[in-house]
UniProtKB/TrEMBL annotation:
InterPro entries, per database record: Homeodomain-like_sf, HTH-type_TetR-like_transc_reg, HTH_TetR
Lineage: Bacteria, Bacillati, Actinomycetota, Actinomycetes, Pseudonocardiales
Protein name: TetR family transcriptional regulator
UniProt entry keywords in alphabetical sequence: DNA-binding, Transcription, Transcription regulation
Gene3D superfamilies to which the protein is assigned, alphabetical: Tetracycline Repressor, domain 2
Domain HTH tetR-type: 2-62
Annotated DNA-binding residue span(s): 25-44
PROSITE patterns: HTH_TETR_2 (PS50977)
Length: 179
């Protein structure tokens, strides 16, 4: 069972994604998490603290995903498949990332949000660079994954008749054997 802190962050993510930052009040988050407002305030003393908790969660999930990229049998395939619509990055990174984008819309400290999003970008690029050994190739793979990820975030399917396997088939001649 999820801790009260995780339930609060889950509820905050849901409200941000489904109704937007304006509707994600402390009262609404507490109600959605099925905790008292005092219980919410125990973990997050303010809305800014709640946003900071979300950004900390984003960084944790990003670091876990970078570890998964490094450990994957086929880092490029893992990265592109989990970036594509329906691919689903394990651990909720996509959902937390989308919620963080919504926080950015109304953040008092936009720098903290930009820094967290930049850390996600750097985590993935670093993991790809580690596995591919070529910084330009790693960046190219990341850019392809970014395009797929954007489709995931906005709900756009892949073009009819094309798949991630088609992308991988074109990229494989450029990739080291175990990437």
């Amino acid at each position: 069972m999820a801790s009260a802190r995780d339930r609060v962050l889950d509820a905050y993510e849901t409200l941000l994604i489904e109704t937007g930052p304006g509707a994600a009040t402390l009262d609404a988050v507490a109600a959605a998490a099925n905790v008292s407002k005092g219980g919410l305030l125990y973990h997050f003393a303010s809305k800014d603290a709640l946003a900071a908790g979300l950004l900390a969660r984003l960084r944790e999930r990003s670091a876990s995903d970078a570890d998964a990229i490094r450990a994957a049998d086929g880092a490029t395939a893992y990265y592109l498949r989990t970036s594509a619509p329906g691919g689903g990055i394990p651990g909720g990174l996509t959902r937390t990332y989308l919620a963080a984008l919504r926080v950015a819309e109304h953040a008092r400290d936009a720098t903290a949000v930009r820094d967290a999003l930049a850390a996600v970008d750097a985590d993935a690029l670093g993991a790809l660079r580690d596995r591919l050994g070529d910084p330009v190739l790693a960046w190219m793979v990341q850019l392809v994954g970014d395009g797929l990820y954007l489709r995931t975030l906005i709900g756009t399917p892949l073009p009819e008749g094309l798949s991630v396997d088609d992308l991988l088939a074109r990229l494989r001649p450029q990739l080291p054997a175990e990437s």
